[in-house]
Amino acid sequence: MKKTIAKIQTTAVGVALLLALSACSGPATGGQATDIPKTQNTADISEGVQPDQAAVDLLPQSYKDKGELIVAMDLHSPPTTFLAEDNVTPIGVNPDIARLVARKLGLKLKFENTAFDTIIPGIDGGRYDFTATTMAATPERLKVLDMIDYLKGGSSVAVAAGNPLKLSNDTLCGRNIAVTQGSTQQLRHLPNVSEWTCTSQGKPAINGVTLPNVQDALTQLASKRVDGVFYDAGALAWAQIQQPNAFTVLEPRVDTRTNTTVAIGLKKGSALTPALQKAIQSVLDGPEYKKSLEYWGLGESAITEAKIRE
Fold first, then answer.
1. How far is residue 210 from each of residues 6, 147, 171, 223, 290, measured CA to CA in Å?
2. Mean pLDDT in order along the chain per 10 residues (310 residues)
3. Which domains does the chain have, with CATH numbers?
C-alpha cells in the first residue's frame, strides 16, 4: 500500500511537527552544495560510488541475473526514512544507506513503501529482499531474519511543550504513552520499562497506546489524548529542532537495558546475507556513510562494524 506525504498532510499537526523542515546550507546527500530545504533534496548519495568487487563476488547468480534489489521501508519517520516533497522520492538516512548498499553490489534498487508491521511477513514471503528501516535485532525477529548492524539507535519520550505535567523517564507509571504499531518500543521496551520502574515497585503500569505511526502519536499528544510519545530518539530530536515549541523531548534517552544498535534485515538463512554484509561493511568504511549521518543530524549514530546478529 502506497503512502504519500500528500496523505500525511491531512494530519496538520503531524506534518507541522515532522515535515516543516527549514532550509539548510551544506553538502547534499549527493555531494553537491545546496540551499534547498532537506525535504526537497532528492540527490542520490550513491552517485559515482563504485561497486565493491569483494561484495559482488559473493552475490548469488540469481541476483546478478535479476540486477535489482527490493527494499521495504515505512516512509513515515524523518530523518531516517520518509518521502521528499515530490511525494515520490524516498529520502533520509535509511534510503541513503540502502542506495549505497545496492551500489556496492552493482545492483539497481527498488523501494517498496509499506507499513512497518508488514515488512517482516513480506520478507518472509519473498516480496522484499531486505529492509533498512531502523529495526532493532530482537530475539523474536532473529528467529525469522538474518540481521546486520548498520546504525546506533535509542528511544526517547516526547511530552507536551514545556512539560507541564513535570514528567521524567521515572514518572511515567499510570500515564498514557503512545507507541507505534510493530515498533520495538511497543513490542519490547515499553513493557520492560513499565515492569522494572512501575509494577515491580507496586506502582500502576504504563498504559501503552498503540497507534499506526508517529504522526498520529504526536497529533494525539498535541490534543492531550496521550501524555507522551515513546519513539526513536533520533527522529524525535530531529522533529524538536524543526519545531522547538511544539513539544519537549525528555533527557536523557530512556534506559531500556538493551543493545540499541539497529540492523538491516533479510530472510533467515538467505543466500544474499554474506554479500549484503560485505556491502554494508564497505558502506560503513566509506565517507558517504558519515556524510549522510551528519547531514540528517545523526552523526553520533555511526558504528564501525557490520556485525551479523545472533
1. 23, 25, 20, 16, 33
2. 33 41 39 69 96 98 97 91 94 97 98 95 97 90 97 91 96 97 91 95 97 92 97 84 86 82 96 98 98 87 94
3. 5-153+260-301 (3.40.190.10), 155-249 (3.40.190.10)
